[in-house]
Amino acid sequence: MPKMKSHSGAKKRFKVTGTGKVLKQGAGMRHHLEVKPSRVTRRLNGDVELPNTQAKIIKRLLGKSGK
To answer: Minimal CA–CA distance to 22: which of 65, 46, 54, 45?
Structure first.
């Protein structure tokens, strides 16, 4: 049986921490940044943790254990 391939799009967008949490970049940081207040851009700049139900799906795409 061939090896499982990890999802190339998910590799670029998500990161799994050492404790098993799945992080993604917050939405709203791609364009129209000059009209947003600095307070908002600083808040959106950090990584966001995914809920457990979505994290399980992403871990499966990345080939990590979905526990």
So the answer is: 54
Amino acid (one-letter) located at 42: R
Choose among 1, 4, 24: nearest CA to 65: 4
Number of structural domains the chain divides into: 1
**What are the backbone dihedrals phi and psi of residue 32, each rounded to the nearest 5 degrees, phi first?**
60, 35
pLDDT tens-digit profile, the chain (67 residues): 898 899 999 999 999 999 999 999 989 999 999 999 999 999 999 999 999 999 999 999 999 875 5
Residue 67 covered by a domain: no
- CATH number of 29's domain: 4.10.410.60
Round to whole Å and give the CA distance between 15 and 18: 10
Are residues 62 and 16 in contact, defined by beta-carbon separation less than 8 angstroms? yes
